[in-house]
Amino acid sequence: QVQLVESGGGLVQSGGSLRLSCTASCYTFSSAIMGWFRQAPGKEREFVAAIARSAGVIRYANSVKGRFTISRDNAQNTVYLQMNRLKPEDTGVYYCAARRSGVWTVSSTNDYDYWGQGTQVTVYS
Questions:
Q1: Going by DSSP bridges, is the β-strand pair 92-99/119-124 parallel, antiparallel, or unpaired?
Q2: What are the b/e assignments for 38-77, b being 16+ CB within 10 Å?
Q3: How far is residue 109's CA from residue 87's CA, in Å, rounded to a whole number?
Q4: CA distance linking residue 98 with residue 106, whole number of Å
Q5: According to the model, what pLDDT value does residue 63 have?
Q6: Shortest CA distance to 47 belongs to which of 2, 103, 92?
Q7: Were both Cys, which of 88, 95, 117, 119 would link to 6 (CB 3.0–4.6 Å)?
Q8: Residue 89: left (phi > 0), alpha (psi -120 to 50), or beta?
Q9: Residue scoring higher pLDDT (56 or 59)
């Protein structure tokens, strides 16, 4: 089973930036689609961004479009989420997810086979 480990979360002032990383614990990384979700206290987990294995197909939630950038390095078994111009509304636990199938359906938690443990992102005013 693929194991995912997120890192890069932290406390940041509004308007600042963070870069999240998600690395597969195994040496092989064959997931066709990688995604990022986030969950604020008392709220459901919501879609943030997704990227296909070729890195040529990307989708963002409207709330982060223009501010966040998702990328992946298949050789390093890693997917990234560069978060710029952060807002307090971006606060939450960010989760990395992997989907084995290459079918481009990415915005639901049910679309993914594996999940990381999450990393906390807190944005203050």
A1: antiparallel
A2: beeeeeebebbbbbbbeeeeebbbeebeeebbbebeeeeb
A3: 23
A4: 10
A5: 97
A6: 92
A7: 119
A8: alpha
A9: 59
Tokens 């919501």 sit at which residue? 46
- Residue from 9, 10, 7, 12 nearest 88 by CA: 12
Residue 30 confidence (pLDDT):
65
| pLDDT (tens digit per residue) in 1-32 | 788 999 999 999 999 999 999 998 765 556 78
**Over residues 84-93, mean pLDDT:** 98
Extract the tokens encoding 34.
């990688």
In Å, how far from its chain's centre is CA 59? 11
Q: By C-alpha distance, which of 98, 103, 113, 118 is closest to 29?
A: 98
Q: Which residues face 84 on adjacent strands?
A: none
Chain-centre distance for alpha carbon 23: 11
Tell me the pLDDT of the chain averaged across its residues: 92
Q: What is the dihedral of CA 39, 15, 122, 31, to 10 degrees?
A: 50
